[in-house]
Hints:
The chain is of the alpha+beta class. It contains 6 helices and 11 strands.
Amino acid sequence: MEKITLPVKRVGDRWEFLYGGDIPVYDGVEANLTISTHQIIDENFLARVNQDVRVKVLNQGTRLLIALTDKNDNQSLGRKWHGTLPVRLPPGTTRLEEVFLGERKEQGSRTLNDEIDTDQHGGLWLRIRGLNKSELISSSIVLPEGLEEQNAISLNHAFTLLSKKYETHRLSNTGNVYTHVFYQENNSRWYPLSDLRLGVLDDIERSLIRDIWLEVEQKLGWRPVPNIKK
């Protein structure tokens, strides 16, 4: 579905079309508003919507699968892979390569904050900035045998090294690690890292909604009626 960007201006308590008049849309229509942070006059509101959150989502030693398209291998993926295939595999996937989250190393993990620096073990962290910007931060990545390098410094680096070896038909050896890297849940099924990101974003969204309602309740002087047992 095609989308458009409309220039708007704040007039009183509503947003209007920049060149005049209301914006004729249906009630309940949702949109994203992009503005500079210095234009938000409520510091508490700004702190909530512009928070910087880091969450450790996987521990050191976790096994991951990287989906690749190897056009030099004539065997089908189903015949080569004896376990359960990951869900939502990228179209054209013919190879799954195993990697592991390795140890913390200075060259293998970027120093971003105290929360990560105080964790002496390796793993995978998800950094959420604002409400939708995300970044994966990892310790070293242990690569499969057969590559010149034993470790990669990030998942993006690991994907590039494996892509150069097996996806020789590609001009560029980069890819979206959220959709091409898979982790295993307790049910033994493999899911893309994008599922982990969605889960963290949902938690942050619920926390934001809870904080906003608490503030509304305080302003209105409203408190829940206590449950009285009969």
